[in-house]
Design brief:
alpha+beta, 4 helices, 9 strands, 21% helix, globular, 185 residues, Porin
Amino acid sequence: MRKKLSIILLVLILVSSVSLSAAVQPSVFDFDIMNYFKLGDLAAQDFSGYTPGVRMQVNITRWFGLSAEVMCPLPADFAVGPYDATLTTDLVLRLPLGFFEPFLALGPAYTISLDPVAGIVDLDSMVHYNVRTGFDINFNNWLALGFEAKLPFYDLDTLFADLTVVDGPWLMANTYVGLGLKFKL
């Protein structure tokens, strides 16, 4: 146990020292290609629920930005009819330390129903909520690799009425974990 703890502490010290000395500048605009799986699916080694996403983020200051993302759960059969995607818009708080950049984001989420057969795009009027946290590893000023966890809340009334719904199985079934490739300007 002590050996594992020592290794973890050594890695944390190394990452901290490298991140503080890296010459990576905070970005103004980010474009992310995200790859999500639900945490429960990963634990069960079920990779059929892959959810790709695309995110754009504008960073107003070094520590604050605004982002918009579209997530499209797969598999999708566009020939059959309506397909639901999720649009999230977030306020992003980040801590640009150079090589290592942790962040926290929260904001509203919307369900978009796409029907390519009928040519209809419908935005659900119900507002949901979204929270995500993670970190980016900046390789240089224009490329980073991001790791994150994202939790959409589709029904806040039920959540706050009965907080016992937020237990282990509920979190495993609703939390997305993602790996993203980030292009920065």
